[in-house]
Every structure is written in structure tokens, then in C-alpha cells.
Amino acid sequence: MSKGNSTKITDELYRYMLDHNPPLDAVQRGLVARTYATFPEVASMQSAEEQGPLLAFLVRLTGARLIVEVGTFTGFSALSMAQALPADGRIIACDVSEEWTAYGREAWEEAGVADRIELRIAPALETLRAMPAEPHIDMAYVDADKESQISYWEELVPRLRPGGLIVTDNTLYHGTVLDESATGSAAGVRAFNDHVAADPRMDSVLLAISDGLTLSRKR
Questions:
Q1: Which of 79, 82, 130, 142 fits a 20 to 30 Å CA distance from 54?
Q2: CA-CA distance, 143 to 134, in Å (whole number)?
Q3: Residue 26: CB partners within 8 Å, gap ≥ 6?
Q4: Helices 98-111 and 26-38 meet at what angle, rounded to 10?
Q5: Is 161 helix (H, G, I), strand (E, B) or coil?
Q6: What confidence tens digit (pLDDT) does each residue in 15-46 have?
């Protein structure tokens, strides 16, 4: 097996990459800083810096107008996607924490996109199952509890329009996906990756971006 290019992402090369991507604006940068300062023990739950511009790019590429986010945390990813939406676009953001998402609400207001984000504080499966059953979602971003990923997938795929996109974060899960005896979240990610790869409704690619990012397009 040949793995092709074996470029090592050093700190210097990572900085070079960020310097050649669209920069975070002041609101995004402030939200990232507040997240790390306020929640240092769980700040790694925030989407990586390079994922903000990537998500915005995908919103524009797909022409998305309705996005569903499963797992909002402090709101960086929702902010990045909302800024790329047209004025009449909307994100339904699913989370269970009023504390974490309060930081997102503040940033969304500051950026002038709060009217594009509908935050629903409830278990995400309840929110998804309450949505219309027919295909109507343009794009989804899934970055929540890993043991429920297959359940989220099975609620989202039927509601996704043909050509719509699901972006799933942490699909390499710190390398633990290689462990056949994995339990908990790692086992959930392993099962999810196998489920996605075998789903005939979708075309999917797993990319080595940050902690692993899977892009899935509905056929």
C-alpha cells in the first residue's frame, strides 16, 4: 500500500497553511480566544481554526440555504457557516448546553448573523425527528457525541436534498479508530465510519483534515 505524499504537518507548516487561508475575522478570533480562556479543559471540542474557512467555502460551494448543525458548543462553526449564508439562509443549531452556547449567541449578535441561526436547546435526536421527513436540508455539520453519530446520520440522510452535503468531524478520533478493541466514543466513530462507507445513498470521502473530516454527498 502506498500512502502517497508524506508531508509532516509541523507547527511551522501549520502556521503557513493558516496564513494562506482566509483569516478569521475579529469576531471569530475573539470567540476562539474566549473559548480557550473560559473552557480550557474542553476547548478542544471547538472546531479547528482551519475548519471555519472550509465550512464557509462548502456553504458557498453547495449554495446552501438551510443548514443543520449537530453540536454547537461555543458557536465558532455556526458563526463561520452563518457568515457564508445568503441573507435569507438559516442554520438550525442543536445543542444541550445553555452555558456553552451563550458565548455563541453573543458572537452571533456581534457579527450581525444572529437572525440566521436558530438555536434549539434539546437532545439533537429529538430536534431532528421533529423536522419534516421529506428532503429539505442542504447541508449538515455533525460534531457531537460520537456514540450517537449513526443515529444522527439516519435522521439526516432522508431529510437531505439530492446533492446535499453532510460534514462529519473527528472521524479519525485521535487515531483510536485503528483500535479494534476500542470502546466508548472511539468505538462509536469506528462503527460510524464503517456505516458511512457502506451507505449506497451517499458518496463519501474521509479526509485527514484536523482530527479527520468526512464529506458525504447525497446521490
A1: 130
A2: 23
A3: none
A4: 160
A5: strand
A6: 999 999 999 999 999 999 999 999 999 999 99
